[in-house]
Design brief:
Elements lengths: L2 E4 L4 E4 L2 E4 L9 E6 L4 E6 L5 E6 L1 H21 L6 H32 L4 H36 L1
Antiparallel strand pairs: 1-2, 1-4, 2-3, 4-5, 5-6
Helix pairs in contact: 2-3
Amino acid sequence: MRVTVIAPDKLVSVNGETLKLPDFYFDESLHAIQFDGLQGHIEFEASDGGVNTAPVSDFEVQPYVEAWNAERARLDAIMPPEPTETEKAQQRIAEIQHQLTTNDLVSVRPLRAKVAGTATEFDENRLAELETQAQALRAELVTLTTKLQELSDQTTE
C-alpha cells in the first residue's frame, strides 16, 4: 500500500487516491511522509527552515491510513461510489424483469375481454403495445445477460 501524507495541506493519499482530512491532527513540525508499503521516509520541518528526514515504518503510517479509511467511508455514505458495469447490468436486468411482470399484469384485463369475446379496439391495441414493449425488453435482457456473462468471465480470468 502506497501512502503519501502532505501535512501542511492536510492531504493523505492511499494507493493514489487523495483525500483532505481537515479534522485529523497533523503534528505541526510534520511536512510529509512517503511510504511504498515496505519502506519510506518522514520529513520534518527543521527550526532553521530546512527539512529533516528519517525512516518511517508501517506502524507510523497506520494512523494516517485509518483516518483516510474513516474519511473514505464517510464520503461513501454521503455519495456512494459509481456502480460497476456488473452492478449497472444487474440493476437494469432487475428493472426489465419488473417491467415484464408489470406488462403481464396490465395485459390480464384486455386478455380476459378477448377470451370473453368482448374485446374492444382499445383492448387489442393495448395488447399489441404491451407485446411490442415486452419484445424490446426481452431483446435488451438477452443483451444484458450476455454482457453480464462476459464481465463474469473477465473477472474469473
